[in-house]
Input
Amino acid sequence: MNAVSEPFDLAIVGAGAGGTLAAIHALRNAKAGQRIVLIETGAYLGEGAAYSTRQKELVLNVPARGMSAFADAPQDFLDYACKHDNEGTAREELANSFAQRRRYADYLRARLLQARALGTARLLEVHACVMALEPAETGVLRIALASGIELQARNLVLASGNHPRALQVAGGENLTPVQCIDAWDYRVIARIPVDAEVCIVGAGLSMADSVQSLRAHGHRGRIHAVSRHALLPLAHAAQAAVHEFDVAALHALPLRRRMRAIRAHVRDAQAAGLPWQSVFERLRPHGQALWQSLAFADQRRFLHHVVRYWDIHRHRIAPHVQAQLQALLDDEQLCVHRARLEHVAARRDGVYLRLRLPDGATQDLDAGVVINATGVEHDMEKTRNPLLAQLLAQGLARRGPHGLGLDTATDGTLLDAHGTPQPCIRVIGSPRIGTLWETTAIPELRVQAEAAVKALLNA
Ligand SMILES: Cc1cc2nc3c(=O)[nH]c(=O)nc-3n(C[C@H](O)[C@H](O)[C@H](O)COP(=O)(O)OP(=O)(O)OC[C@H]3O[C@@H](n4cnc5c(N)ncnc54)[C@H](O)[C@@H]3O)c2cc1C
Output
């Protein structure tokens, strides 16, 4: 390995939205002359799986008013959107609208550029995959890149983000990348022949994205979606509203009584003329406290019995996207199967799928192509990320509670295999799901990114 001289004050691994936010906050908080390195496998900053699409039909799942990079300037993305809106849309309307995803990556890059210009620290951008970390005796971390180059840093933010879940079905390993496409592979989805029969595995947000992509490219063929629960994402309310109630009172309740109380709040909201979404708007900032106040056994029950219902209410889509899905369902171009995908096999002209229905019967499907929309892999041992594999294998990290993500202290400090904190490594975003539950969206990422870099740069 080629060693590179001076250690950086801070290394950030991953430059999706989380790592880019960390770089922005680091530049704003670093002392003059401090050196930061931002390392990203992909070619572009600020994208990751969520914002890499250039397709204008794919929009954010959160209204513009909720997407600022700065907790202390919550209107910042809205200000940016207003400045760059060439159609002269009223500010109020833009605040409640769902911006194109590609615009969000542009926004993050613009704020990074600004922070670079105004800051006195230096930022180096490296495009490479981090293969391994090794704490050296000198107190610095050695960072091995796929190219064979080695960097050194005193501190590190791990922002490795979301990883797509592999299609876990008998026969799945025999499908070619042309027969089984990942839902986040927007460019390949765009090339699916418009008359092909498509089977999407999963019925959540990634399914909605895939259908949007197909629709945008004029797809005419039948689209099947297969899911065990067949619960489709629900839409945001047309107007933002919050139903006020005492959230802290929920913390003392065990899961079953808590869910009953939430349903009662929904009834109260509706009786007061508010949409059910107003209850979830009230709960939204308290997601971490709600998770952490559940007993371990109740967290497990939540994961087994409640999570799918919770997700469709909590992670909503733009109303116009839901209306488009509904129109396709009404026209029977989109058909949702409540079933478990049991087996797939490659055929010369496509893919054969066998579904197991709730009553035990089977159903056969023949599709030209399968889209894997089964979502995010939270078992870090299954992610195929070489860095995560190395950290786990060498005991520098361990899986988080319930096997979800990586185990961290409350401030995000990485815990090793023995539960010992590694004070120079902080984790942000999706890998903290087991500890925080609510940890992937921008309102959480911006707070975690800022807190992590402030603590590390001032250590
Ligand atoms: C399709 C989709 C849509 C979403 N829409 C919204 C939305 O509208 N609003 C919202 O608030 N949230 C949304 N989210 C949630 C999303 O998790 C966050 O907004 C955000 O994009 C997560 O950023 P991240 O940097 O943590 O992870 P990622 O976006 O996954 O980025 C991680 C980055 O790290 C890099 N990386 C990983 N390992 C290494 C390594 N070993 N070496 C070098 N680089 C590495 C990857 O290449 C990647 O670029 C969405 C998520 C998805 C998947």
Remarks:
- The longest strand covers residues 340-347.
